[in-house]
């Protein structure tokens, strides 16, 4: 009896230990590359940078856990950058995911031809690094070299002010949409491939048209993929940095150094005010986390 009990306990230990052996490499990287930087940023945000009036001595750090956060919520430029990114996400994310869903449904259609070509063509913009894509679009947006405005001016006598106060944000959104629609399309298309053929065949037998099948069967069944891509897109919108930074030099001042929250934090890093940059980053991370959690809770109600 004792031997059997010992062997059973050993087997349970081995079963418990094996998953952790596989998880350990991930956990080490997760802690080192994710949790540790977040903890360090939070600790940094609890200090303030103090300089003397003449600037003759090196700045010193003083522990003041609320000063940076009080300043963040009264910083007009940072609040404006949050509002700008919020507007960006509310408009750009649905447009991008709507396009991705539409393209995925077209490629998944039984009557579609050249599926491989269109999948590759839709995904190719994502293969272009974001910075390179922004540089390319800066050429298309440039008041001097833009072939788009060159054609419009010669054909219709007007040009598009891509970097006016009203259009600058949407010029950036266009670049992001161009880059990421194909990526989201592939996720949705992969989900479409998991729909049982019997379900689609039953809809066909019942006389459902292609659009009726897409609306009543395909879209509801890829709902988890839509939720996933939406959360990814929310996080990506909050991290908006590369595209506006690259377009900033040709924007004529429409895109400032504090145009997005990450750009505002980077501006503070450039000014060597690391604690305040850390506080801005922590506030942004908390807001994104809360938004993602609320979105999951709202969309998860339909699964109960």
UniProtKB/TrEMBL annotation:
Q: InterPro entries in the record, alphabetically?
A: ABC_transporter_permease, MetI-like, MetI-like_sf
Query: Where, subcellularly, is it found?
Result: Cell membrane
Membrane topology type:
Multi-pass membrane protein
Q: Name one Pfam family in it.
A: BPD_transp_1
Could you state one GO biological process linked to this protein? transmembrane transport
Q: Which UniProt keywords apply?
A: Cell membrane, Membrane, Transmembrane, Transmembrane helix, Transport
Q: Which GO terms describe its cellular component?
A: plasma membrane
Q: Does the keyword Transmembrane apply?
A: yes
Q: Which residues cross the membrane?
A: 20-43, 85-105, 117-140, 160-180, 221-241, 276-296
- Coiled-coil region(s) at which residues? none
Report the residue ranges that make up the ABC transmembrane type-1 domain in this protein.
82-295
The UniProt similarity line reads: Belongs to the binding-protein-dependent transport system permease family.
Record protein name field: Sugar ABC transporter permease
